[in-house]
Amino acid sequence: MPYYGMTIIFIFSYLQIYPAKFKLTIVFSILGITGILPGIGIFLLYKLRQIKSLSLNNRKDRLIPYLITLISYGCGILFLYKTGLPYWALAFMAGSIISLLIDIFVNFRWKISAHMTGIGGLIGLTLALSTIQSIFPINLFILLILLAGFLGTSRIYLNKHTFGQVIAGTLNGMICIYWAILLTIRYL
Is the pTM of this model over 0.70? Predict the structure, then answer.
């Protein structure tokens, strides 16, 4: 989701004025750092029989993959800091880290939907961009709501999560990222 989030930032914010090569370098670096590397780590855990399934259906199998993802998100925020992007763009990644930490702690007792945390974060990002730029990319917002609906419905239909777990995940991502960006704009 950080890859999609950075893509949204470069298309729907004033950062669209940056050169295409710069934007592509950042977007694909974030994909590698926060998507491909954790994916490789989780695959290795599976091959080493540390987790039962690549889909991480078992709540107890999620801790180490969550920690791998948390470390990769930390590396992602350091990378973005080095690029000189505005702090509010870094706050998107910080909000992702906060929502992931909440997912980790909730996971000790209950199975919250990490998929929905991710899509909820993109909705929160879109709402934050709308707030700070006084624009409202209605087509993007509608697309994200539809995707969240399809994703949440599929998670429930496949018996991976309950309705409550889907809603909790969505709200977690949306609130953490929205407020991380808005508080950064206000205080930094």
Answer: yes
